[in-house]
Design goal:
Blueprint lengths: L1 E6 L7 H9 L8 E6 L12 H20 L4 E4 L4 H6 L7 H8 L6 E5 L4 E4 L9 H4 L2 H17 L6 E5 L14 H16 L4 E6 L5 H5 L5 E4 L2 H12 L4 E5 L5 E4 L16 H15 L2
Parallel strand pairs: 1-2, 1-3, 3-10, 5-8, 6-7, 6-8
Antiparallel strand pairs: 4-5, 4-9, 9-10
């Protein structure tokens, strides 16, 4: 039997209730043992504290140790409060970067997948003003290859991957910026030449590419920054969206929403995304 660990995130948020609802839903696959990682504390719903942040951090550290020891085969992480973690000295922008560092993985990427869209991000938790200076053709190629591998893992033999431009209209031939011409287009050419088992195209105008992708003309979209990919995905797939860290030696998934302190304990939280996150972790374990 395979074992999937599940953290509760910041327990002042909706993590505990969506985990409980997912486990009780009857919609999880048979043949798996689901294990709560970390200590359950008496947190006040909607009121994050140093204690709730510490419990979330301790659970993350424990999940890494259990992955390394073989006690669990995958981990699903509930949402954490980044501000509270940073006050404890947490040095990472988010959980994606935490797991990559703790598991010694330098070739990783953030991907979100749902019923209608799959997107991967070239830059993640950085200010929008920093994005143009962080874009690099080699980085786009690296993440484009990881995205193709994820599509292959999901049974898509020759995935069609659309690469987003950065600027309006993908730069309009340099009128609105040179990044699309000088950085993104060469990366798309190189990806196509590498023969990584995918059909790459672009750079596509960001304001039009997600409609055909959602209609099934593309299997995934490679996006240049966080909100470029997450706004359309959460608009179309909020209830089915799952965050998955590509490139790790073990599957790690999470729901596509945050702690939602404002509705914690009210009974309004929807467990659909957590359920899909657990389902995807199980599928990834089975396909390893």
């Amino acid at each position: 039997m395979k074992h999937v660990g599940i953290t509760l995130g910041d327990q002042a948020g909706i993590g505990p209730e969506v985990v409980r609802a997912a486990l009780e839903s009857g919609n999880l696959p048979a043949g798996f043992d689901f294990k709560i990682i970390g200590e359950t504390i008496d947190a006040c719903p909607g009121k994050p504290s140093r204690a709730s942040a510490q419990a979330a951090l301790d659970a993350l550290e424990e999940s890494v140790q259990q992955l390394k020891s073989g006690e669990i085969d995958a981990v699903v992480t509930a949402p954490v409060g980044k501000e509270g973690l940073h006050e404890l000295g947490f040095l990472f922008p988010g959980q994606t970067e935490f797991f990559a560092e703790r598991l010694g993985c330098t070739n990783h990427a953030m991907c979100l997948t749902g019923k209608n869209l799959t997107v991967a991000l070239v830059t993640i938790h950085v200010g929008v003003a920093e994005v143009p200076n962080l874009l690099d053709s080699d980085e786009i190629v690296r993440i484009g290859k990881l995205l193709a591998q994820f599509c292959h893992q999901r049974g898509i033999t020759q995935p069609r991957i659309a690469v987003c431009g950065l600027n309006p209209h993908a730069g309009e031939n340099g009128v609105f910026g040179r990044e699309d011409i000088e950085i993104i287009a060469p990366a798309v050419d190189l990806l196509s030449q590498l023969g990584s088992g995918a059909d790459y195209s672009g750079p596509h105008p960001p304001d039009t590419i997600f409609r055909p992708a959602a209609d099934g003309e593309y299997d995934a979209v490679l996006c240049m920054y966080h909100d470029q990919g997450l706004i359309p995905l959460k608009l179309l797939d909020f209830d089915t969206g799952v965050n998955v860290t590509l490139g790790l030696p073990y599957p790690r998934t999470s729901p596509d929403h945050g702690t939602a302190y404002d509705i914690a304990g009210t009974g309004k939280a929807d467990a659909s995304s957590m359920t899909h996150a657990i389902q995807l972790a199980c599928k990834m374990v089975s396909e390893r």
